[in-house]
Amino acid sequence: MEREFNDTGLCVPGRHYMADISGKIEKIIKLIEKGKYFTINRPRQFGKTTILAILDKQLNEKDDYAAIEITFEEIDLDIFQNHESYIHELLMMMLARLEFLNLEKPAGFIKENLEKITTFPGLSRFITQLIQNTMPNKKVVLMIDEVDKNSDNQLFLTLLAMLRNKYLQQNKGNDHTFHSVILAGVHDIKTLKAKIRSDDQRKYNSPWNIASDFKVDLSFSPTEIETMLQDYAREKNINLEIPAIAQKLYYYTSGYPWLVSKMCKFIDEDIVPQREDKNWSINDIEAAFRMITNEAYTSTLFDSLAKNMENNKKLYDLISMIVINGAGFSFTITNPVINLGHLYGILVPGKHGRCQIHNRIFEQRIYAHIMSEIIQTRYMKFNGFLIPEFYTGTRLNLKLVLQRFQTFMKENYSNRDAGFLEREGRLLFLAYLRPIINGRGFDFKEPVVSDEKRMDIVITYQDQRHVIELKIWHGQKYHEQGLKQLSDYLDTYSLKKGYLLVYDFNKNKEYRQENILFEDKEIFAVWV
């Protein structure tokens, strides 16, 4: 069977190109060997199910281990109606797994007692007997995937409380229970419990406070991405600049597993087949980035990203301030909104301890989503100007775009207060720019995390690439620093020409334009 890059469900070595994550698996197995109970809570499509599948296989290959992996992914919601049906379904899932593993004695024991176990105390005693009498020489590991399906379900908390008590009793030498228990899902137990119980007094008294911290980084490092590319290159018999390509993939994805695989899939199945040369280049990564951030392309991950923002106004507003306004917020994980953004894989701690969007693809998708809503609801009038005037043949006249925007601001917003302009100024330009670019080129907001309130926009059109830096005027000293920042950024794209849009909120400001020669760069700057 010809292998492919996987973008749906479980990754299978014989069918899919996979990164070598043996180092991560080794760290997790060490936790299991120590008898730890822990939760793997990571965002959607972050490889949790694949991790559990690998653990299941490796543990069951050991003579002294028995791993029982169950999942709530396809359960009937009716089982949550009462504890009898819930317990019955748990045992049925365990039975199916034990039968598949050909562990006849424990499987038979479940069959004999299946209809007798109707209470959690009864389930507790049954687990003791199951492990002590049918698998006395094995360390039994229970792995439960998709625990999020237990949200709004008090029975799940009762199950956790039972497992917690048995763990404590086993440590005292008074019980026999699972050697290790692993829960996997998007939510951690604290946030699941908060959804089930709203009272503050009991919200943080988790029945899973025995769990060890899970610190294994499941995102792909550039080195791990390289292993997947090496595997692919060997099988396809092609030459790739593997370190450079892996680094560029990481640059856009920050190692988010699904995003890495999806970009590679775009290149392998959509980009490379269009030409004779099947070798990959950095330009292919750029093309894949434009494909995955194309606003017409959708996926369950991006649908979930938008839904999680739309369903929580505070989270939406926080992310909007970061992405659109360049605001900086301390990454305080105890802040419920920041914690939620982190849980969904949107926010991570960045430079200077500030909130940062997890990866450039998410940032671009969020930017496009928010700007689409803003333009529709607040700035529809921007769609009225003659867009063709900004194009000459195959060239985009970005200098004219900035000049027209300056005129627009002077005519329409010269009397607005500084507070409004500081809050809305850059948003106005983004809203002004989008109708000009959309359908013709591509604009990408480069994430910036620093003490300077600046924003970098990269525009690609045909074979052109333009870089615009948006910056607030803080005097000549900071202006010089801004020119240096822009010059350095232009170097990353091997460009000698750039653009600077300066927002001056002083009452006596001057709407001016200037051609600036800085280092070896030509910079066109306008003040608004």
TrEMBL record:
Pfam families: AAA_35 (PF14516)
Lineage of source species: Bacteria, Pseudomonadati, Thermodesulfobacteriota, Desulfobacteria, Desulfobacterales
Name of the protein in question: AAA ATPase-like domain-containing protein
Organism encoding this protein: Desulfonema limicola
Residues of the signal peptide: none
Domain of life: Bacteria
